[in-house]
Amino acid sequence: MRNLLRFLLRYHSFFVFLVLEIISLILIFSYNNYQRVNFFNSGNNIIGSIYEFNNSMDNYFHLKRINDELASQNSVLHNMLQERIIERTETHRQTDSLTGKTFVYTSALVINNSVNKQYNYLTLNKGYIHGIKPDMGIVCPDGVVGVINHVSKYYSTGISLLNKRLFISAKIKRNGIYGSLVWEGTNYRKAILREIPIHIPVTVGDTIETSGYSTIFPEGIMVGTVHSFDILNGSNYYTIDVDLSTNFKAISYVDIIRNINQTEIRQLEKKNEND
Amino acid sequence: MIKEIIKYGFMYILLVFIQVLILNNIQLSGFINPFLYVLFILLLPFQTPTYLLMILGFMMGMTIDIFSNTPGIHSSATVFMAFMRPHVISLLSGRDSQDIGISPRIKGLGFAWFLKYTVILVLCHHIFLFYIEVFTFTGAFYTLLRCLLSSVFSIILVIISQYIIFKN
Asked: How distant is the Cα of A19 from the closest Cα of chain B, in angstroms?
């Protein structure tokens, strides 16, 4: 026994070598074993996250180009969708009353924006040479952003929804009752929907979207969801707190919506003003 | 002592990251894949006992294995290389290896000594690794070619690293 121990001690490095090599070889041979693979895969969760991090770092450098591509592709798709709707509605002109409203989308980059003032404005990198005119709607994928008010050659400014001067015609999606949406000037994630009569049932979580009664926004663009509501003493209308779906602190690419028939509709509606 | 452990710990992590995030993605013309992580075993101090060398080699190989989903392959090759290291050192500098410095570096031992040391050990590692990987002697010359080309790149990287990051 003592001799064996002495032998092992004397050649300990060789035995360590043998043991480690045998472990390695067992690992190699049992690699196809299901449990073994499973064991290594659980380890891969950590490694996967490292690789994912590496990959996300790598992707970060291409983000600007990808964004540009996606934004322009988005406007092309929006335009195609509109053409489709026109085609459909034109063939069913008799049954569908919702004809004639056509919207063209142009993508733009928000180059200046604020959320902390009472009257917030944003600046976009598209001007009248791109076909932008005042009174066009601004939307982003999450929802409504605002309305264009001034246009220069290459740039335009828009009244943000976070501006106490901007009223937007919005409706409750579930029952189509519309009111006007306005910002209170405090929280950039909240706005107030007024003029919903109190006999209409409202529930927390109801979706609020654009009504389509103005010529600025098409019908059905997301605005937000009902956060809470109450009735002021003696009032016939709800005061509804709306969680805005657009995060105004994080908007970068937006779409400007042009209503092709806006002037025609406005001229027609002007005839009623004298009545 | 503590300082040394921290230094080699950093080196370990850095080499793993360099290997799995950068070098494993470099596959020049399909089969040249340099393995710089062997540098860790090359640079350990002379006093490191052989069993510790091999255990560290096993850990290092295993880490690389887990990252590249090849359990056992890199660890067996690195253990083999760690086993060979004391023999190579005594072959190159005779019995009195302790007299030539604390750990193997170009600065202390000269370019020729370090190059010989690196070439022998990197070849040990790469030949073992590539043959374990294919696990067959069919196309043995093709495997040998791949192995030699990768070794050349690994050796170049090891030498360059001596002038850039792992100077001490």
From this structure: 10
Asked if B83 contacts B49 with a C-beta cutoff of 8 angstroms, the reply is: no
> In sequence order, what are the residues at sequence separation of 6 or more whose Cβ sits closer than 8 angstroms to the Cβ of residue A94?
none
Report, as an integer, the average pLDDT of B38-66: 90
Q: Is the ipTM of this complex over 0.85?
A: no
A21:B21 CB<8 A = no
Lowest-confidence pick of A237-241, B38-42, B67-71, B134-138: B134-138
CB pair distance less than 8 Å for A17 and B83:
yes
Q: Which value, in Å, is the radius of gyration of the alpha carbons in chain A?
A: 31
Helix (H, G, I), strand (E, B) or coil at A216: coil
Write out pLDDT tens, residues A163-201.
Answer: 888 889 999 988 888 899 999 888 889 999 988 888 888
Q: Which long-range contacts (CB under 8 A, 24 or more apart) does B92-100 make?
A: B92/B116, B92/B117, B97/B46, B98/B46, B98/B47, B100/B46
Assign 3-class secondary structure to chain B. Answer: CHHHHHHHHHHHHHHHHHHHHHHHHCCECCCECCCHHHHHHHHCCCCCCHHHHHHHHHHHHHHHHHHHCCCCHHHHHHHHHHHHHHHHHHHHHCCCHHHHCCCCCHHHHCHHHHHHHHHHHHHHHHHHHHHHHHCCCCCHHHHHHHHHHHHHHHHHHHHHHHHHCCCC
Contacts of A12 in chain B (CB under 8 A): 51
Q: A217 pLDDT exceeds 50? A: yes
CA distance A41 to A28: 15
Whole-model pTM: value is: 0.47
Contact B75 A26 (CB under 8 A): no
The nearest CA of chain B is from the CA of A7 a distance in Å of 16
A207 by DSSP, 3-state: which?
strand
Between CA A175 and CA A163 the distance in angstroms is 27
Question: What percentage of residues in chain A have a pLDDT greater than 90?
Answer: 10
Min Cα–Cα distance to chain B from A14, Å: 8
